[in-house]
Specification:
Layout: H1 3-16, E1 21-24, E2 33-36, E3 46-47, E4 54-55, H2 68-89
Antiparallel strand pairs: 1-2, 3-4
Length: about 100
């Protein structure tokens, strides 16, 4: 296994687990939990009205700018993208990048 294949596998795990935390969106007496980032606590969903309807929107629901997980995802994706470009120039196969 190459370093790039290892990075690709680790990136997949990090992306798949990015919403594995839980955030309470209600009071402590009657908690309602939604998925959130375990690092920055940003919620995966945003309540759009008082009827408890939630929406997952890439614009509304994103990690906080200083989130370590988001930084790691972006940096690893950039490294693997550059690697894939080099491999393509040489006529070789690259690695899969989780998005």
């Amino acid at each position: 296994m190459t370093n790039e294949e290892l990075l690709s596998g680790l990136l997949k795990l990090i992306v798949n687990e990015q919403w594995s935390g839980r955030t309470n969106t209600s009071c402590q007496c009657h908690p309602e939990y939604i998925p959130s980032c375990p690092n920055c606590k940003a919620p995966k969903y945003t309540r759009i009205n008082l009827d408890r309807h939630y929406v997952s929107d890439p614009i509304l629901n994103t990690h906080k700018p200083d989130c370590e997980r988001l930084k790691l995802i972006k940096e690893t994706t950039a490294i693997l993208t550059k690697y894939n470009e080099q491999q393509e120039e040489q006529g070789e196969d690259g690695v899969w990048i989780q998005s």
